[in-house]
């Protein structure tokens, strides 16, 4: 014995209502997301909490507040792995450190350095998680690519969404610089574009390797400055670590307390006589 509701559903699916009229009738089903009663739609007021690649980027404000016009990208607690990576990220050794975009003129050098460290750590964690950026190709085309800093924190991985994933070691970077593009005209950083041309202005950060260049396009000046400063710090950190490894011997010398190893002849004679071999040179 079927329930009335299930019997009604089966009847609709079997087309019994159509047979009762003695002909075939086209059934149209309209789907809509509007609520009954004409409820008003509300626009999205915040980003998707599950989207970890398109989240807004903060500017490393130590008070926890983002810069004007932006919001912090670290809305939740860090994972244990992220905490470990953050604790390992220290500023590289530099004669002079860059000024972070959110620094003020009345701040001391120590306060600016603290802001720079927070900005650098947040950027490295964002890049380690992965982010989508706009790339300017050699054909002057724009393409969205996924960039991610690998686990060693010295290799940049680029996914161009065409089946190719390219790895770029940051140790091979020769220089990083910013240029300004406005209406197919190029300007060096610091040069003011023509008046009333801010709508078409693009900030381009170029990461130059030995045989290739990567050009990343940004609309906001502060975002491009953040990317440029933090990318330079990551590159300096990677290069300094490589230089330190090259100076460190693979097999450190053993502590022999001033004694040299016996020669093979001395070892043979000691084995024949049963006495310990003397030190070489004695």
List keywords for this structure.
alpha+beta, 29% helix, 8-stranded antiparallel beta sheet, 282 residues
Describe what you observe in this structure:
By secondary structure, the chain is an alpha+beta fold. It contains six helices and eight strands. It has an eight-stranded antiparallel sheet with strand order 4-3-2-1-8-7-5-6. It starts with a helix and ends in a 9-residue tail after the last helix.
Strand content: 15-25%
* Dominant shape: extended
Q: Supply the helix-strand structural class.
A: alpha+beta
Largest sheet at a glance?
8 strands, antiparallel
Mean pLDDT: 75
Radius of gyration: 32 Å
Order of helices and strands: HHHHEEEEEEEEHH
Q: Compute the number of strand runs.
A: 8
Physical arrangement of strands within the biggest beta sheet: 4-3-2-1-8-7-5-6
Low-confidence sequence ranges: 15-20, 49-72
Counting DSSP H or I runs of 4 or more residues, the number of helices is 6
Terminal residue distance: 107 Å
> What fraction, in percent, of the residue positions are helical?
25-40%
Blueprint of the fold:
Blueprint: H1 4-14, H2 16-20, H3 80-88, H4 109-129, E1 131-136, E2 142-149, E3 155-159, E4 165-169, E5 175-182, E6 185-188, E7 201-208, E8 213-218, H5 221-247, H6 264-273
Antiparallel strand pairs: 1-2, 1-8, 2-3, 3-4, 5-6, 5-7, 7-8
Helix pairs in contact: 4-5
